[in-house]
Amino acid sequence: MATSNMGIGRRAMLGTGATLAGLALAPRARAQAAAQTIRIGFLTDLSGPYKDITGETGAICARQAIIDFDAAAKGMRVEVVVADHQHRPDVGLGIIREWFDKGDVDMILDVGNSAIGLAAGTLVTERNKIQLNTGAASSDLTGKSCNANTIHWPYDTWSNANSAARSLLGSGGDRWFFITADYAFGKAMQADATRIVEAGGGQVVGAALHPFPGTSDFSSYLVQARARRANVVAFANAGADTLNCVKQSAEFGLTRAGIRPAALVAFIQDIKALGLDVAQGLTISESFYWDLNDRTRAFTERLKPRLTNGGMPNMDHAAAYSSTLHYLKVVAEMGVARSKSDGRAVVAAMKAMPTDDDCFGRGSIRADGRKIHPMYLFEAKKPSESTGPWDLLKLVGTTPADQAFRPLTEGGCALAQN
After folding, report:
1. Is the confidence at residue 16, as pLDDT, over 90?
2. Got the DSSP string for 257-294?
3. pTM value?
4. Whose CB among 310, 316, 347, 371 lies 3.0–4.6 Å from 153's, allowing a Cys bridge?
Protein backbone atom coordinates (compact mmCIF):
# COMPACT_ATOMS: atom_id res chain seq x y z
CA MET A 1 0.00 0.00 0.00
CA ALA A 2 2.81 2.33 0.86
CA THR A 3 4.48 1.58 -2.47
CA SER A 4 1.20 2.29 -4.26
CA ASN A 5 0.80 5.63 -2.50
CA MET A 6 4.36 6.59 -3.37
CA GLY A 7 3.66 5.71 -7.01
CA ILE A 8 0.56 7.86 -7.08
CA GLY A 9 2.49 10.67 -5.40
CA ARG A 10 5.25 10.46 -7.99
CA ARG A 11 2.77 10.56 -10.88
CA ALA A 12 1.07 13.51 -9.26
CA MET A 13 4.39 15.31 -8.89
CA LEU A 14 5.26 14.57 -12.53
CA GLY A 15 1.87 15.92 -13.59
CA THR A 16 2.39 19.03 -11.54
CA GLY A 17 5.86 19.50 -13.03
CA ALA A 18 4.44 19.24 -16.55
CA THR A 19 1.75 21.77 -15.69
CA LEU A 20 4.29 24.19 -14.23
CA ALA A 21 6.46 23.77 -17.32
CA GLY A 22 3.42 24.50 -19.48
CA LEU A 23 2.65 27.60 -17.46
CA ALA A 24 6.24 28.74 -17.80
CA LEU A 25 6.11 28.25 -21.55
CA ALA A 26 2.68 29.88 -22.01
CA PRO A 27 3.87 33.50 -21.70
CA ARG A 28 6.71 32.76 -24.11
CA ALA A 29 4.29 31.15 -26.58
CA ARG A 30 1.92 34.08 -26.24
CA ALA A 31 4.78 36.50 -26.84
CA GLN A 32 5.86 34.56 -29.95
CA ALA A 33 2.27 34.52 -31.26
CA ALA A 34 1.93 38.26 -30.62
CA ALA A 35 5.17 38.94 -32.49
CA GLN A 36 3.72 37.15 -35.53
CA THR A 37 0.26 38.78 -35.37
CA ILE A 38 -0.84 42.07 -36.93
CA ARG A 39 -3.48 43.73 -34.77
CA ILE A 40 -5.84 46.37 -36.11
CA GLY A 41 -7.73 48.57 -33.64
CA PHE A 42 -11.03 49.66 -35.17
CA LEU A 43 -12.05 52.75 -33.19
CA THR A 44 -15.53 53.89 -34.12
CA ASP A 45 -19.04 55.00 -33.14
CA LEU A 46 -21.08 51.96 -32.11
CA SER A 47 -23.91 53.74 -30.32
CA GLY A 48 -24.06 57.42 -31.30
CA PRO A 49 -25.08 59.62 -34.24
CA TYR A 50 -22.52 58.13 -36.67
CA LYS A 51 -23.05 54.46 -35.87
CA ASP A 52 -24.68 53.72 -39.24
CA ILE A 53 -22.19 55.64 -41.38
CA THR A 54 -19.11 54.19 -39.66
CA GLY A 55 -19.66 51.59 -36.92
CA GLU A 56 -19.75 47.82 -37.15
CA THR A 57 -20.16 47.71 -40.93
CA GLY A 58 -16.74 49.32 -41.27
CA ALA A 59 -15.20 46.61 -39.11
CA ILE A 60 -16.90 43.99 -41.29
CA CYS A 61 -15.31 45.62 -44.35
CA ALA A 62 -11.86 45.54 -42.72
CA ARG A 63 -12.33 41.82 -42.06
CA GLN A 64 -13.46 41.35 -45.67
CA ALA A 65 -10.14 42.84 -46.79
CA ILE A 66 -8.29 40.27 -44.66
CA ILE A 67 -10.34 37.50 -46.30
CA ASP A 68 -9.84 38.82 -49.83
CA PHE A 69 -6.12 39.28 -49.24
CA ASP A 70 -6.02 35.66 -48.04
CA ALA A 71 -3.73 36.62 -45.19
CA ALA A 72 -3.69 33.15 -43.65
CA ALA A 73 -2.46 31.54 -46.86
CA LYS A 74 0.35 34.10 -46.93
CA GLY A 75 1.39 33.07 -43.42
CA MET A 76 0.02 36.23 -41.81
CA ARG A 77 -2.12 36.29 -38.71
CA VAL A 78 -4.37 39.38 -38.61
CA GLU A 79 -6.82 40.36 -35.88
CA VAL A 80 -9.35 43.20 -35.64
CA VAL A 81 -10.44 44.56 -32.26
CA VAL A 82 -13.31 47.04 -32.05
CA ALA A 83 -14.12 49.78 -29.53
CA ASP A 84 -16.59 52.65 -29.17
CA HIS A 85 -15.06 56.11 -28.58
CA GLN A 86 -18.48 57.64 -27.72
CA HIS A 87 -17.31 60.83 -29.49
CA ARG A 88 -15.33 61.71 -26.38
CA PRO A 89 -11.66 62.54 -27.02
CA ASP A 90 -10.67 61.42 -23.52
CA VAL A 91 -12.33 58.04 -24.07
CA GLY A 92 -10.94 57.63 -27.58
CA LEU A 93 -7.39 58.53 -26.63
CA GLY A 94 -7.58 56.30 -23.55
CA ILE A 95 -8.54 53.35 -25.75
CA ILE A 96 -5.71 54.07 -28.19
CA ARG A 97 -3.13 54.27 -25.37
CA GLU A 98 -4.39 50.99 -23.93
CA TRP A 99 -4.21 49.33 -27.33
CA PHE A 100 -0.69 50.57 -28.03
CA ASP A 101 0.77 50.02 -24.55
CA LYS A 102 -0.93 46.76 -23.56
CA GLY A 103 -2.86 45.37 -26.52
CA ASP A 104 -0.04 45.08 -29.08
CA VAL A 105 -2.16 47.00 -31.63
CA ASP A 106 -0.14 48.08 -34.67
CA MET A 107 -2.63 50.24 -36.57
CA ILE A 108 -5.78 52.17 -35.69
CA LEU A 109 -8.52 52.37 -38.28
CA ASP A 110 -11.69 54.42 -38.89
CA VAL A 111 -11.67 56.78 -35.84
CA GLY A 112 -14.77 58.59 -37.18
CA ASN A 113 -14.29 61.76 -35.15
CA SER A 114 -12.00 64.59 -36.27
CA ALA A 115 -11.11 65.79 -32.78
CA ILE A 116 -9.99 62.29 -31.80
CA GLY A 117 -8.22 61.73 -35.13
CA LEU A 118 -6.24 64.96 -34.82
CA ALA A 119 -5.26 64.21 -31.22
CA ALA A 120 -4.34 60.62 -32.15
CA GLY A 121 -1.69 62.00 -34.48
CA THR A 122 0.49 62.76 -31.48
CA LEU A 123 0.09 59.24 -30.09
CA VAL A 124 0.85 57.40 -33.32
CA THR A 125 3.93 59.58 -33.81
CA GLU A 126 5.21 59.02 -30.25
CA ARG A 127 4.63 55.25 -30.37
CA ASN A 128 5.64 54.96 -34.05
CA LYS A 129 2.34 53.27 -34.85
CA ILE A 130 -0.13 53.90 -37.71
CA GLN A 131 -3.41 55.77 -38.10
CA LEU A 132 -5.45 54.99 -41.22
CA ASN A 133 -8.25 57.46 -40.74
CA THR A 134 -11.27 56.41 -42.79
CA GLY A 135 -14.09 57.99 -40.81
CA ALA A 136 -13.07 61.51 -39.79
CA ALA A 137 -13.31 64.37 -42.29
CA SER A 138 -11.12 67.30 -41.22
CA SER A 139 -8.71 68.32 -43.97
CA ASP A 140 -6.29 69.35 -41.20
CA LEU A 141 -5.34 65.66 -40.95
CA THR A 142 -3.29 66.16 -44.11
CA GLY A 143 -2.78 69.90 -43.59
CA LYS A 144 -1.25 71.70 -40.63
CA SER A 145 -1.68 68.59 -38.42
CA CYS A 146 -0.20 66.06 -40.84
CA ASN A 147 2.36 63.54 -39.63
CA ALA A 148 4.42 60.73 -41.08
CA ASN A 149 2.34 58.03 -39.36
CA THR A 150 -1.13 58.96 -40.67
CA ILE A 151 -2.96 58.40 -43.96
CA HIS A 152 -6.44 59.82 -44.66
CA TRP A 153 -9.12 57.98 -46.71
CA PRO A 154 -11.70 58.44 -48.45
CA TYR A 155 -12.71 62.14 -48.51
CA ASP A 156 -12.22 65.28 -46.44
CA THR A 157 -13.89 68.59 -45.75
CA TRP A 158 -12.09 70.25 -48.69
CA SER A 159 -13.05 67.60 -51.27
CA ASN A 160 -16.73 67.62 -50.30
CA ALA A 161 -16.91 71.39 -49.97
CA ASN A 162 -15.22 71.76 -53.36
CA SER A 163 -17.63 69.38 -55.08
CA ALA A 164 -20.81 70.81 -53.52
CA ALA A 165 -19.90 74.50 -53.63
CA ARG A 166 -18.86 74.51 -57.27
CA SER A 167 -22.10 72.80 -58.27
CA LEU A 168 -24.35 75.12 -56.24
CA LEU A 169 -22.50 78.29 -57.23
CA GLY A 170 -22.83 77.29 -60.85
CA SER A 171 -26.60 77.13 -60.51
CA GLY A 172 -27.11 80.44 -58.67
CA GLY A 173 -26.51 79.45 -55.02
CA ASP A 174 -24.45 82.48 -54.00
CA ARG A 175 -25.76 83.42 -50.51
CA TRP A 176 -24.75 80.77 -47.99
CA PHE A 177 -25.77 80.13 -44.39
CA PHE A 178 -24.01 77.36 -42.43
CA ILE A 179 -25.43 75.15 -39.70
CA THR A 180 -22.29 73.65 -38.21
CA ALA A 181 -21.45 70.95 -35.66
CA ASP A 182 -19.43 72.63 -32.90
CA TYR A 183 -16.24 70.55 -33.06
CA ALA A 184 -13.21 70.09 -35.29
CA PHE A 185 -14.98 68.42 -38.23
CA GLY A 186 -17.82 70.93 -38.55
CA LYS A 187 -15.55 73.94 -38.20
CA ALA A 188 -13.12 72.59 -40.79
CA MET A 189 -15.97 71.88 -43.20
CA GLN A 190 -17.37 75.39 -42.82
CA ALA A 191 -13.91 76.97 -43.23
CA ASP A 192 -13.11 74.97 -46.38
CA ALA A 193 -16.53 75.63 -47.93
CA THR A 194 -16.33 79.35 -47.07
CA ARG A 195 -13.02 79.73 -48.91
CA ILE A 196 -14.39 78.00 -52.00
CA VAL A 197 -17.70 79.93 -51.95
CA GLU A 198 -15.95 83.28 -51.63
CA ALA A 199 -13.34 82.39 -54.26
CA GLY A 200 -16.23 81.55 -56.61
CA GLY A 201 -17.92 84.92 -56.10
CA GLY A 202 -20.45 83.84 -53.44
CA GLN A 203 -21.10 85.31 -50.01
CA VAL A 204 -21.52 83.78 -46.55
CA VAL A 205 -24.45 85.62 -44.95
CA GLY A 206 -24.34 83.84 -41.60
CA ALA A 207 -23.55 80.73 -39.59
CA ALA A 208 -24.70 78.96 -36.45
CA LEU A 209 -22.79 76.44 -34.34
CA HIS A 210 -24.82 73.67 -32.74
CA PRO A 211 -23.71 71.49 -29.81
CA PHE A 212 -22.40 68.05 -30.76
CA PRO A 213 -23.56 65.48 -29.95
CA GLY A 214 -27.07 65.87 -28.59
CA THR A 215 -28.85 68.45 -30.78
CA SER A 216 -32.14 67.40 -32.38
CA ASP A 217 -34.02 70.68 -32.83
CA PHE A 218 -32.52 72.88 -35.56
CA SER A 219 -35.54 75.12 -36.05
CA SER A 220 -33.95 78.28 -34.61
CA TYR A 221 -30.99 77.94 -36.98
CA LEU A 222 -33.27 77.47 -39.99
CA VAL A 223 -35.21 80.58 -39.00
CA GLN A 224 -31.92 82.51 -38.92
CA ALA A 225 -31.03 81.29 -42.42
CA ARG A 226 -34.36 82.48 -43.74
CA ALA A 227 -34.02 85.85 -41.99
CA ARG A 228 -30.59 86.38 -43.59
CA ARG A 229 -32.13 85.78 -47.04
CA ALA A 230 -29.81 82.88 -47.79
CA ASN A 231 -30.44 80.89 -50.95
CA VAL A 232 -28.28 77.97 -49.71
CA VAL A 233 -28.36 76.54 -46.21
CA ALA A 234 -25.34 74.27 -45.86
CA PHE A 235 -25.23 71.56 -43.20
CA ALA A 236 -21.65 71.18 -41.94
CA ASN A 237 -22.51 68.12 -39.86
CA ALA A 238 -23.23 64.45 -40.49
CA GLY A 239 -25.30 61.44 -39.53
CA ALA A 240 -28.43 61.99 -37.45
CA ASP A 241 -27.75 65.73 -37.33
CA THR A 242 -27.87 66.02 -41.13
CA LEU A 243 -31.02 63.90 -41.26
CA ASN A 244 -32.77 66.17 -38.79
CA CYS A 245 -31.62 69.28 -40.65
CA VAL A 246 -32.94 68.02 -44.00
CA LYS A 247 -36.26 66.86 -42.51
CA GLN A 248 -36.81 70.11 -40.66
CA SER A 249 -35.87 72.12 -43.75
CA ALA A 250 -38.70 70.35 -45.58
CA GLU A 251 -41.08 70.96 -42.70
CA PHE A 252 -40.21 74.67 -42.66
CA GLY A 253 -40.73 74.94 -46.42
CA LEU A 254 -37.22 76.21 -47.16
CA THR A 255 -37.26 74.82 -50.69
CA ARG A 256 -40.55 76.54 -51.43
CA ALA A 257 -38.96 79.76 -50.16
CA GLY A 258 -36.12 79.38 -52.67
CA ILE A 259 -33.54 78.14 -50.16
CA ARG A 260 -31.62 75.05 -51.26
CA PRO A 261 -30.51 72.63 -48.54
CA ALA A 262 -26.98 71.29 -49.05
CA ALA A 263 -25.71 68.28 -47.12
CA LEU A 264 -21.95 68.74 -47.25
CA VAL A 265 -21.33 65.28 -45.83
CA ALA A 266 -24.06 62.75 -46.49
CA PHE A 267 -24.15 59.04 -47.14
CA ILE A 268 -26.41 56.51 -48.79
CA GLN A 269 -27.72 55.58 -45.33
CA ASP A 270 -28.95 59.16 -44.95
CA ILE A 271 -30.83 59.05 -48.25
CA LYS A 272 -32.36 55.70 -47.27
CA ALA A 273 -33.44 57.03 -43.88
CA LEU A 274 -34.96 60.18 -45.38
CA GLY A 275 -36.76 58.32 -48.14
CA LEU A 276 -36.77 59.52 -51.72
CA ASP A 277 -39.99 61.47 -51.19
CA VAL A 278 -38.01 63.83 -48.93
CA ALA A 279 -34.49 63.38 -50.33
CA GLN A 280 -35.18 63.55 -54.08
CA GLY A 281 -32.98 66.14 -55.77
CA LEU A 282 -30.56 66.41 -52.83
CA THR A 283 -26.96 66.37 -54.08
CA ILE A 284 -24.21 64.60 -52.15
CA SER A 285 -20.49 64.17 -52.76
CA GLU A 286 -19.14 60.64 -52.54
CA SER A 287 -16.00 58.76 -53.50
CA PHE A 288 -17.80 55.37 -53.60
CA TYR A 289 -21.25 54.08 -54.51
CA TRP A 290 -22.11 50.40 -54.49
CA ASP A 291 -23.66 50.56 -57.99
CA LEU A 292 -21.00 52.79 -59.58
CA ASN A 293 -19.30 50.14 -61.76
CA ASP A 294 -18.60 46.43 -62.11
CA ARG A 295 -15.88 46.44 -59.44
CA THR A 296 -17.98 48.22 -56.79
CA ARG A 297 -20.83 45.82 -57.50
CA ALA A 298 -18.51 42.81 -57.19
CA PHE A 299 -17.19 44.08 -53.83
CA THR A 300 -20.73 44.61 -52.56
CA GLU A 301 -21.80 41.11 -53.59
CA ARG A 302 -18.88 39.58 -51.65
CA LEU A 303 -19.74 41.67 -48.62
CA LYS A 304 -23.52 41.16 -48.57
CA PRO A 305 -23.57 37.79 -46.74
CA ARG A 306 -21.82 39.43 -43.77
CA LEU A 307 -24.15 42.46 -43.58
CA THR A 308 -26.68 41.02 -41.19
CA ASN A 309 -28.47 44.37 -40.80
CA GLY A 310 -29.55 44.37 -44.46
CA GLY A 311 -27.66 47.59 -45.16
CA MET A 312 -25.20 48.59 -47.84
CA PRO A 313 -21.64 49.93 -47.67
CA ASN A 314 -20.88 53.63 -48.01
CA MET A 315 -17.59 55.41 -48.74
CA ASP A 316 -16.40 55.22 -45.09
CA HIS A 317 -17.04 51.48 -45.04
CA ALA A 318 -15.39 51.05 -48.45
CA ALA A 319 -12.38 53.00 -47.18
CA ALA A 320 -11.97 50.60 -44.26
CA TYR A 321 -11.71 47.81 -46.83
CA SER A 322 -9.44 49.72 -49.22
CA SER A 323 -7.00 50.96 -46.58
CA THR A 324 -6.76 47.60 -44.82
CA LEU A 325 -6.09 45.81 -48.11
CA HIS A 326 -3.35 48.28 -49.08
CA TYR A 327 -1.81 48.06 -45.61
CA LEU A 328 -1.69 44.25 -45.78
CA LYS A 329 0.01 44.36 -49.18
CA VAL A 330 2.81 46.44 -47.67
CA VAL A 331 3.06 44.27 -44.55
CA ALA A 332 3.41 41.18 -46.75
CA GLU A 333 6.30 42.82 -48.61
CA MET A 334 8.07 44.18 -45.52
CA GLY A 335 7.42 41.24 -43.25
CA VAL A 336 5.37 41.18 -40.05
CA ALA A 337 8.27 41.76 -37.64
CA ARG A 338 9.59 44.88 -39.38
CA SER A 339 6.07 46.22 -39.97
CA LYS A 340 5.26 45.95 -36.26
CA SER A 341 8.48 47.68 -35.26
CA ASP A 342 8.35 50.71 -37.57
CA GLY A 343 5.01 52.37 -38.37
CA ARG A 344 6.65 55.26 -40.22
CA ALA A 345 8.38 52.84 -42.59
CA VAL A 346 5.06 51.12 -43.30
CA VAL A 347 3.35 54.44 -44.07
CA ALA A 348 6.24 55.47 -46.32
CA ALA A 349 5.92 52.18 -48.22
CA MET A 350 2.15 52.63 -48.52
CA LYS A 351 2.76 56.04 -50.11
CA ALA A 352 5.29 54.56 -52.53
CA MET A 353 3.00 51.72 -53.66
CA PRO A 354 0.12 52.58 -56.05
CA THR A 355 -3.32 51.70 -54.68
CA ASP A 356 -5.79 49.46 -56.48
CA ASP A 357 -8.96 47.84 -55.17
CA ASP A 358 -12.57 47.19 -56.13
CA CYS A 359 -13.93 50.12 -54.14
CA PHE A 360 -11.89 53.03 -55.53
CA GLY A 361 -10.00 51.55 -58.47
CA ARG A 362 -6.47 52.76 -59.06
CA GLY A 363 -5.10 55.62 -57.01
CA SER A 364 -2.18 56.88 -54.98
CA ILE A 365 -1.20 58.38 -51.62
CA ARG A 366 0.50 61.78 -51.55
CA ALA A 367 3.40 62.90 -49.39
CA ASP A 368 0.96 64.60 -46.98
CA GLY A 369 -0.91 61.33 -46.39
CA ARG A 370 -3.89 62.22 -48.58
CA LYS A 371 -5.34 59.22 -50.47
CA ILE A 372 -6.11 60.36 -54.03
CA HIS A 373 -8.98 59.13 -56.25
CA PRO A 374 -11.93 60.71 -58.10
CA MET A 375 -14.85 62.31 -56.28
CA TYR A 376 -18.41 61.96 -57.58
CA LEU A 377 -21.47 64.17 -57.30
CA PHE A 378 -24.68 62.17 -56.93
CA GLU A 379 -28.29 63.26 -56.85
CA ALA A 380 -30.99 61.42 -54.93
CA LYS A 381 -33.41 59.85 -57.40
CA LYS A 382 -37.10 60.55 -57.66
CA PRO A 383 -39.18 57.67 -56.28
CA SER A 384 -40.30 56.85 -59.82
CA GLU A 385 -36.68 56.43 -60.95
CA SER A 386 -35.71 53.86 -58.29
CA THR A 387 -35.82 50.17 -59.16
CA GLY A 388 -35.01 48.74 -55.72
CA PRO A 389 -34.55 49.49 -52.02
CA TRP A 390 -30.95 50.70 -52.41
CA ASP A 391 -31.22 52.13 -55.94
CA LEU A 392 -31.11 55.66 -54.56
CA LEU A 393 -28.51 57.75 -56.39
CA LYS A 394 -27.69 58.84 -59.92
CA LEU A 395 -24.31 60.14 -61.01
CA VAL A 396 -24.42 63.79 -62.13
CA GLY A 397 -20.75 64.76 -62.07
CA THR A 398 -17.18 63.51 -61.66
CA THR A 399 -14.17 65.41 -60.33
CA PRO A 400 -10.95 63.77 -61.61
CA ALA A 401 -8.46 62.55 -59.02
CA ASP A 402 -5.97 65.32 -59.74
CA GLN A 403 -8.63 67.97 -59.03
CA ALA A 404 -10.66 66.27 -56.31
CA PHE A 405 -8.53 67.22 -53.30
CA ARG A 406 -6.83 70.34 -52.02
CA PRO A 407 -3.57 71.03 -53.88
CA LEU A 408 -0.57 69.64 -52.03
CA THR A 409 1.08 73.04 -51.74
CA GLU A 410 -1.94 74.71 -50.11
CA GLY A 411 -2.46 72.54 -47.04
CA GLY A 412 0.44 73.69 -44.91
CA CYS A 413 1.75 70.15 -44.33
CA ALA A 414 5.48 70.12 -43.56
CA LEU A 415 5.82 66.72 -45.26
CA ALA A 416 4.83 68.28 -48.58
CA GLN A 417 7.95 70.43 -48.48
CA ASN A 418 10.36 67.54 -48.10
Report:
1. no
2. TT-EEEESS--HHHHHHH-HHHHTT-EEEES--TTSSH
3. 0.86
4. 371
